[in-house]
Amino acid sequence: MNSSKFSLSQNVNPSRVFILQKSELEKSLSPLYYSTLPKKLLHSKKLKEIAIVNPTREKPKFDDDDLVPYVGLPQTDEHSKSIIEVVFRPYKEVKGRSVIYPNELLFARIEPSVFNKKYILTNDLKGYDFAFTSTEFYVVKGKEVDNEYLLANFLSDYVYKQVEGKTTGSTGRRRLDTTVFAELIFPFPEDKSRRKVSQIITQYFAQKQQNEAEAEKLLSSIDDYLLNELGIKLPEPTENTLKYRMFIKTFKEISDGRIDPHFHQEKFKQLDIQLNNGKYPLSNLKKKSILITSGATPLSKGDSYTEDASIGVPFVRSGEIKDITFENCIYIKPEIHNTMLKSSQLKKGDLLIAIVGATIGEVGIYDHNREANINQAIALVRLNDEVLPVFAKDFYKSSIGSFILDRAKRPVARANINLDEIGILPIPVPPLDKQKEIAEHITGIRQQAQQLKDKTKEALKKASEEIEEILLN
To answer: What is the arithmetic mean of pLDDT over 331-358?
Structure first.
């Protein structure tokens, strides 16, 4: 196409409509691909020139049933850019996967993690020399640069826009292919400037760690306050001995329908005692709600979803209920939303509990007036006027609430909680004015913690601006 024969109307937004010459076309016909192409720099290199992607290395060998250290998506935190725990998986399940060592970098390549910037420094493997990792991560090891420099670039708009434009696949599962990933263009100024970039990102993470420690101290005080106000104590830990792992139950004691040993462990018997000894009457969610249901996923993804957030209806998934901001949601076409069960469409004040998958037991509230749907991995509890949703959320997010939800989980390969079990979840019911007092006190603590998080965001913004100036000038 000869662009000299065409010009854009003054009424057209040039950031949304543009003209390309035929000679400028590459492998893709996606407008997003071309709108996010990086501007040319005097000094730049491809990722594959400055780092190794998925380095070839000899993997440790074990017997199939041996448990080996493993780091997947749930074991990492996109905010701190760190590994939060190392779990164990049978070797036979992970032996074909990549191995990571300390001082490398993990890059999540699949939506939504790739757009959440889940890029992880492996500096701390929790004392292990290595770990197997998820196929949803690329392992990156710098050749000419350190991991902090690589991370700073991945977080920069210059590189992130390339990532955004070069992902492919259907909505909800877009991914960045290996060859495309290795071709990402990185600014590559002089050595002094690169060291300055690494220094800025290192200083930012030190400040972030300090702010998060202070926020965590505040949030941990919530638990003591809530339990003290309710007059409930956590059960004393039981010993991992034969005495506590073997027990006898009568048919009368298992009349609630659960016959698996997990549900009837001694520690949960002590839990019931502590709950019943609290200051306030004990009830359950079935008695204190007008609706308990779950959602559904539209069958045809291609025809059911839209990328236009202005017309689409948010589709909330279990990993998003902790803080529903719509930033990470996918969107259903309005006509599809209208065909879904009305009972699973959200209303402001609905209590949400993740009931299957990696986020099982997570709790949140839908605090918006906007129409939205949930998937089948979420239980929706619409409470009656005897229980404030914010009080119920704070209770189930506490240590005692986590204990209750842990008991409800069915200990199978893919742990789950069914809706009947959601209904029998116990909850203390103080007078409404006491519920309000507790909720307002906890909200105040959370707001203080949020202020520290906002301070961290401002620090990141400042660090990003400094880095962009160094990289692009």
So the answer is: 86
The reply to whether omega before 60 is within 30° of 0 (cis) is no
Which pair of structure tokens corresponds to residue 314? 């948010």
Q: Which amino acid is at 406?
A: D
Q: 378 with 294: CB under 8 angstroms?
A: yes
pLDDT at 8: 53
- Within 10 angstroms of residue 303's Cβ, the number of other Cβ atoms is 10
SS3 438: helix
List CB contacts of 293: < 8 A, sequence separation 6 or more.
Answer: 341, 343, 344, 379, 380, 419
> 381-433, pLDDT tens digit by residue?
999 999 999 999 999 999 999 999 998 888 776 789 999 999 999 999 999 99
Q: Which of 33-37, 170-174, 269-273, 385-389 has the lowest mean pLDDT?
A: 33-37
pLDDT value of residue 1: 39
Residue 396: strand pairing partners = none
Instruction: For residue 8, count other CB atoms closer than 10 A to its CB.
Output: 11
Containing 164, the helix (H) or strand (E) segment is helix 157-166
Furthest C-alpha separation in the chain: 87
Please state the three-class secondary structure of 203-260 as a single string. HHHHHHHHHHHHHHHHHHHHHHHHHHHHCCCCCCCCCCCHHHHCCCCCHHHHCCCCCC
Which residue ranges form the domains of the chain, and what is each CATH number? 1-26 (no CATH), 45-188 (3.90.220.20), 222-433 (3.90.220.20)
Residue 222, CA atoms < 13 Å, CB-side half-sphere: 27
Instruction: Give the integer Cα–Cα distance in Å for 337 and 305.
Output: 10
pTM of the model: 0.65
Residue with tokens 């725990």: 85
The average pLDDT across 24-41 equals 57
What lies within 8 Å, CB to CB, of 147 at 6+ separation is 103, 104, 105, 121, 123, 140, 141
Q: Tell me the C-alpha to C-alpha distance, in Å, between residue 159 and each of 63, 187, 270.
A: 41, 9, 54
Q: What are 182's two structure tokens? A: 């290795």
Q: How far is CA 197 from CA 3, 53, 151, 187, 189, in A?
A: 39, 21, 10, 11, 10
The rounded Cα 404 to chain-centroid distance in angstroms is 22
Q: Where are the alpha helices (DSSP H) in 365-431?
A: 389-397, 399-408, 419-423
DSSP state of 74: G
Q: What is the pLDDT of residue 208?
A: 86
Task: For CA atoms 389, 395, 398, 402, give the dihedral sign.
Answer: negative
**Does position 10 have pLDDT exceeding 90, yes or no?**
no
Alpha carbon of 158 to those of 40, 78, 179, 185, 386: distances in Å? 11, 19, 19, 9, 52
